Amino acid sequence: MITARQLSQRNDTLLRLHLGETLFIQWGSDKSKSFT
C-alpha cells in the first residue's frame, strides 16, 4: 500500500521531471533560434 507521503514524493518527482523537460525544451528552442 502506498502512503500519502510516498504519493506526494512521487508527484514531486514527476513535477520536477516535467518542469525540467519543459525548461530543457525551451532552452533547446532558444538555442536553435540563435543558430539559424
Short characterization:
With 36 residues, the protein is mainly alpha-helical.
Write up what this structure looks like.
The radius of gyration is 16 Å and the shape is rod-shaped. The longest helix is centred in the middle third of the chain and has 32 residues, at 4-35. The protein has one helix at 4-35. It starts with a helix and ends with a helix. By secondary structure, the chain is mostly helical.
SSE diagram, text form:
Layout: H1 4-35
Label this structure with key terms.
36 residues; 1 helix; 89% helix; mainly alpha; rod-shaped
Percent range for helical residues?
Answer: over 70%
Q: Mean pLDDT, as a whole number?
A: 85
Order of helices and strands: H
Low-confidence stretches: none
The total count of strands amounts to: 0
Structural class determined from secondary elements: mainly alpha
Span of the ends, CA to CA: 52 Å
Shape assignment: rod-shaped
Task: Determine Rg (CA atoms, Å).
Answer: 16 Å
What fraction strand?
under 5%
How would you sum up the major sheet?
none
The helix tally amounts to 1
